[in-house]
């Protein structure tokens, strides 16, 4: 059995090859199963490969190795695993991993939120988000929501043009006093622009008291992306 640094060398060698990524992950799985002891860092890296190529089967192989070596108790590994399943639109498998986690970080919750949104399960996404905002329970459910959580779900809502979820998050941001965050206000503006809700953009922009340079940039970019050059020039001027 080789040492952990050797496993890292193996992964590095595989990723430098010109073979398709699917072949590299399959080769890594078969090799590491028999000859090399994996570690947490390597497990997370290979899971990210599986997520990028939507390789559920390879991801399940990695999950077996993770359980075999007892890595499933690490919150970062569990989060990477559920994120992989979520990106593969396997929310049933992602949820099983999520429920089984003994500890969940804000990143774990965010991965579930984005996964549900990408799978068009909007009610489930907003339900998870509300649990995050509520800091539900203790132990595995003890989370500390912050501006990152708001920005992530707003960005995901913008990417899939889901203004319904975006408006619910907007209302929650005001209620939870997160609206003053530059990240949140910028994410809201971006979401409304991408959803074509220009009246909401104007109302939001007019309600921002302290407008940082980034806010102006978001406004200019938003109008340009919507082919409204006149408004972009007005903002720029």
TrEMBL record:
InterPro entries: PPR_At4g14850-like_plant, PPR_rpt, TPR-like_helical_dom_sf. PANTHER family: OS07G0578800 PROTEIN-RELATED, OS08G0340900 PROTEIN. Pfam families: PPR. GO terms for molecular function: RNA binding. GO terms for biological process: RNA modification. The keyword Ion transport does not apply. Keywords: Repeat. Signal peptide: none annotated. This is Pentatricopeptide repeat.
